[in-house]
Amino acid sequence: MPLQSLDITRRSATTTPSPGERQTMEVAKLIDVSKCIGCKACQVACMEWNDTRDEIGTNTGVYDNPRDLTEASWTVMRYSEVELEPNRLEWLIRKDGCMHCADPGCLKACPAPGAIVQYGNGIVDFHEENCIGCGYCISGCPFDIPRISKKDGKVYKCTLCSDRVAVGLEPACIKTCPTGALVFGSKEDMVRHANERIADLNQRGYRNAGLYDPPGVGGTHVMYVLQHADKPEIYHGLPKDPHISPLVSLWKGVAKPIASLGLGVMALVGFFHYVTVGPNEVEESGEE
Amino acid sequence: MSADTIQRYSTQERLNHWVVAICFILLAASGLALFHPAFFFLNNLLGGGTWARILHPFIGVVMFVSFLGLMARLRADNRITAADRQWMRQYRDVLANREDRLPEVGRFNGGQKYLFWLMAALLLLLLVSGVLVWQPWFAPYFPVWAVRLAAVVHAVSAFLLIAGLIVHIYAALWVKGSVRAMTRGTVSAPWVQKHHPAWLRQIKGGNK
């Protein structure tokens, strides 16, 4: 939770502009699913750098371990066995975690000023000291990422190692990845690198290989190279066209100013009724 | 009690009303605080954002349960009649203090009755939607679409409830003697004659 206040470009529940003088480069993490061997070194590195220790779970008969994201496990590998063509099993392993949307639903939904921020480099970060534990970010997120801690009622998720990135280091998961499935750099460079990878996959027969950088949320700062980019759902339910739910946009968009104004106007109408029409009184002399 | 002093609300009714009212103030303040950042400071009324988040749903349950008490006590006198609908249609006369043109009013007028039933309906919606978004106890057990829908239902119902209670509070300040009726319980006979003549006839008839 670094205090890079100069680099905060968006701040939850804040109606005035954030500091905008400093320009920073947009960064991105690129996850090449075709190169991932599912070793979970990134999960370990994440725990180690961030000093989180999840509870030891139970074996549920699949490789996914922990079974789901938690307040202490900010990234987990999702293993999907799919057979797109008969007798051709594919083991698709996707590193799940916060996508760091350019248009973050969590930040839009958050009612606590400064509990969720977006830095100029695109990283979306939770500032737990401002978090009140309402869970609105969970409803706001199109990817089902934030998790509330049972211990402290605060919400946690991947920070994209904003503390490391701020001092010029790559995120811990990137540093540890043994196959080069995880790379990190400017978003521009990552898109270029992804395109090289996609061209290579196309040559190897993956005709639908492509980049997952969904425009519905303004693009993301965590992107995937998928062998089957036409069917992101097969990667453990990666949404095909994620966007902030219209219900959330209604609730935390237009409804906010209109309803607030409406209540203010009603109170004023009451006041002006009183000073124009006047109170309704029983006249002293009026009785019999 | 002097001859022209009439008991309008019993001690139980007044206590019940004020429990609901105090809950409403705390809920409206903390609810608005989570709705729009302009109201975030209102959270301080409950001891800050986190405390407001923790307390709001419990206070909501207290409000709902105490409103059930008001329902039991006042339901019979809030039955809507044709005269009440006529009273509502003549809202211009109501707003212009021309009570002589309105149909005779019993213990409660059309506005009070409709607000009563509106509150009952909205509180039920608020309770159900509130449980769905209640962190950390209940929300995690519902699918995210249901929680999103509940958040919108909660916000819309709360807006209508606050709007209704702005009218209610203003009406109490506007119609002099109403605040006394709910704080001390009594009103004068001329007050009842002016605002609730049918009720006056009813109690006089009942006493004889």
In words, what does this structure look like?
- The complex is a heterodimer of chains A (288) and B (208).
- By secondary structure, chain A is of the alpha+beta class.
- Chain A has two domains: 237 residues, 2-Layer Sandwich (Alpha-Beta Plaits); 40 residues.
- Helix content of chain A is 27%, strand content 18%.
- Chain A contains seven helices and eleven strands.
- In chain A, the strands form four sheets. Chain A has a four-stranded mixed sheet with strand order 9-2-11-10. A three-stranded antiparallel sheet of chain A has the order 1-5-6, with no helix packed on it. In chain A, strands 3-4 form a two-stranded antiparallel sheet.
- Chain A is elongated and about 95 Å long.
- In chain A, 42% of the residues are buried.
- The model of chain A has no long low-confidence stretch (mean pLDDT 94).
- Chain B is mainly α and 208 residues long.
- Chain B has a single domain, classed as Fumarate Reductase Cytochrome B subunit (Up-down Bundle), CATH 1.20.950.20.
- Chain B has nine helices and two strands.
- Chain B has a two-stranded antiparallel sheet with strand order 1-2.
- In chain B, α2 crosses α5 and α8 crosses α9.
- Chains A and B meet through α3 and α7 of A and α1, α2, α6 and α8 of B.
